[in-house]
Structure formats: C-alpha cells, structure tokens
Design brief:
This protein is of the alpha/beta class. It has 15 helices and 15 strands. The protein is globular, with a radius of gyration of 21 Å. The mean pLDDT is 97. The structure holds pyridoxal-5'-phosphate (PLP). The site of pyridoxal-5'-phosphate (PLP) has 13 residues, from helix 5.
Length: 391
C-alpha cells in the first residue's frame, strides 16, 4: 500500500464541522468524543491535491478564477474513463457544492406549491431544499427486502399527481448504501418520463462502490432518459474535498441547461472559488491509485463494522453496504426507545453519530456511522458501542 490511511490526524480546532460542532449538535465533547457522523473522511486526499494548493499559495495572488477548461476536461475524462459516460465540457455548470445545486435546481424547475418526490430514509438536506423553496415533499418510502432497500414504484404511482414536478434520486443511496442496478434505474426513469417528472440524480457517491457492484450513471441510459435527467457529481466525497464547496451539475439537454444557468445567474453564482477546481482537477487527474487503495481500506472497515455488529451487538443490524462509507445501523431489535439509544451512543459511548429520524420516514431507531477513518479510531468507536449496549 502506497498511501497511509492508518494515521489519526487531529482535526479539532480546524473549523471542522464534524469535530468542532459535534458538542453543539450531539452534546459530545471533542475532548473525549469521536466524530463519526458527517460525511467527510479522516484521511488526507491524494498528495497532488495539496501540492496544487501549495502552488497557488506560493504564487500568492488570489484573484477571480475564470478559465475552467482544464477543470471541465478533467471531469469529462473521469466520467468517461470511470463511468463510461461521454459528456461535453459545456454540459457542466459548477456550483458551490451539491446542496447548493439541489436548491438551485428546485428554484429553476419548480413553482411554489409543486410536489417533489424523495425516497426516504434519505440524505436530509433534500427535505429542507424542497420546503424552503415553497414546495411540498412527497415521501416515496423505500421498502426493505432481504435486508436491503428497494424502490416502491407502486407506492409512487399512488402518490404522483399533476403537480409532481421533480424526483430527487440519491444514487448510490445515502443512507443504506444501495447501488441501484441498471434495471431499477431504467424502471424509475420510464416511470418519470411517462409523467413528465424531471429527475435530479444526485450521484455524489458514484465512485465509492464496493467489489461486486457497479454504479450506473442514470443519464447514460439513453438520449430520451438523458433529456429529463440532471446529474449532480463532485470530487468532494471521492477524494475528501468537501471544504472545496465545488459541485458539478451536468445537463445534456440545451433548454434545461439554459434554464438552470439562468437561475444560477439570478442568484449571482458565476463560478466557484479558485481552490475548488484546482483541488478537484488534481484529484481527477492523479488520484486513481489513491482511490483504489482507499476503496480497499474502506471495504475492510465496512466488513469490520458488520462483523462487530453481528457478533457483539445483539438486537442491532447493519445494512449490507454496496457503496458509500456510511453504515446504517438498525437498533429496533434492542427493544430500546430512540431516547435510550441516543443516550447510550452519546452519553455512554461518547460517539457523535447521525440520528436516524433526521433522514425522514423509516429512520426511527437507526443511526448512521461514518467509518471512513483510520482503523484504530474505528476499533475504539466499535468497542465503546459494544460496551454501551452490553445488556
Ligand atoms: C447524497 C449527498 N448529496 C450531497 C451531499 C453534500 O454535497 P455538498 O457538500 O457538495 O453540498 C452529501 C454529503 O454527504 C450527500 O451524501
């Protein structure tokens, strides 16, 4: 292994949302607590990323960034090489991350009062993006079959009406780590095409997929589907660059793209900060070996979580993850109330985990654990969890 994923790097006092706000959010002090919630990783990115920033700092002048051609080319190459999806550089709009993009997309394509479908339990900022823009959330709940989530299109058929404008797909799914199959995606796309529903496909976790699974880019399924799909990607999850606040919105359809760009312009968003594209291009251009090693490391962490849960946490299950580094732990079998589960996790184990109910319906008595950290940190967290739930 060339890269070091084992060293623990102290992030306290670095303005880290994950570490420096966990006490406010979860009552867990960073002095003795472990931050295993928010989706960023405890690893350095590929070294070329920090080299690129160092060069910019050494140059020293931080004026407006403008020419994004090499950044866009790095995305075009990545999507073709890793995902078999051929895109044009002019299909890409660069936003301040994907939450920013989802909000702008709702503003661009929905009117207040319109309905927007999500598939909970799901990444919680989708809910706020919909309601804060005056739209209504339609919860098309995932169903659990053989321990994994499946989409329920029969349920969606009953929920979708004339005011249903958009569906926000999370692919791969967070939480629960499903990597949707080509067939599942085709069925969903056909459903939405028939009803003229735009699909915003949030594929930010697209590179974080384990052995035996393949991510399918929804918009790559054919021109008809692509004409109603907006794809959101970013280098931020793959290479641990969330602070870059730089996301890609990829739209092949000219009229959808024009409408989106108009909304960006109305909000005064004309480009990213200068560091984001530098970091992302360096990662896309030089980070492939790093990603390969990262995925091996994460896969072993995933398996470690699963084995500890299976062997030492009676009444708890972890959903088998096909992608993402976010274990979805189900505590229903413990018979404890949500309050009791939270108290054991936060007060006894001193762990900050995401609380399941924030992910919407289906999240009760669940917790999301981010295992993208050095193994000694993960082992410590798991030991604490086991002792907090010892009966
Ligand atoms: C599905 C999903 N979309 C978007 C984001 C956040 O994207 P950004 O940091 O670019 O706003 C996350 C972060 O966890 C996520 O899981």
């Amino acid at each position: 292994m060339t890269y070091d994923f084992d060293t623990i790097i102290d992030r306290r006092g670095t303005q880290s949302l994950k570490w420096d706000s966990m006490e406010d959010r979860y009552g867990v002090s960073p002095d003795d607590g472990l931050a295993m919630w928010l989706a960023d990783m405890e690893f350095l990115p590929p070294p070329e990323v920090n080299d690129a920033i160092r060069r910019a700092v050494d140059h020293g002048i931080h004026g407006y960034p403008g020419d994004l051609a090499s950044y866009h080319n790095s995305i075009v190459n990545w999507m073709e090489h890793r995902h078999g999806w051929k895109i044009e550089p002019n299909w890409i709009s660069t936003t301040h991350g994907i939450v920013n993009a989802v909000n702008l997309l709702i503003q661009a394509f929905c009117e207040p009062g319109d309905k927007v479908v999500v598939q909970p339990p799901v990444y919680y900022p989708f809910f706020g993006a919909i309601t804060s823009n005056g739209c209504e959330v339609i919860n098309n709940r995932l169903v659990r079959i053989d321990g994994r989530y499946r989409m329920d299109l029969e349920d969606l058929d009953g929920l979708a009406g004339p005011a249903t404008r958009m569906l926000i797909l999370c692919s791969p799914h967070n939480p629960g780590g499903r990597v949707w199959t080509r067939t599942e995606l085709e069925t969903l796309a056909e459903f939405c095409l028939d009803r003229n529903i735009i699909i915003v496909s949030d594929e930010i976790h697209h590179d974080l997929v384990y052995e035996g699974f393949n991510h399918t880019v929804l918009a790559s399924l054919g021109p008809e589907i692509a004409s109603r799909v907006i794809t959101c990607t970013s280098a931020s999850k793959t290479f641990n660059l969330a602070g870059a606040m730089t996301g890609n919105v990829i739209i092949s359809d000219d009229s959808l793209r024009r409408r989106f760009k108009l909304q960006m312009s109305r909000c005064g968003i004309h480009g990213p900060n200068s560091f984001g594209p530098l970091m992302a291009s360096a990662a896309y251009n030089h980070g492939e070996q790093w990603l390969k090693e990262l995925l091996n490391y994460l896969q072993r962490n995933r398996d470690r979580v699963d084995s500890v849960v299976r062997d030492s946490l009676p009444g708890v299950t972890s959903m088998p993850l096909e992608g993402t580094y976010l274990s979805w732990l189900d505590f229903w079998g413990t018979g404890l109330s949500m309050e009791e589960i939270v108290s054991r996790v936060q007060d006894e184990a001193r762990l900050a985990l995401n609380l399941g109910p924030t992910f919407g319906p289906g999240g009760d008595k669940h917790m999301r654990l981010n295992f993208a950290c050095p193994r000694p940190m993960l082992d410590e967290a798991l030991e604490r969890l086991v002792s907090a739930f010892r009966v």
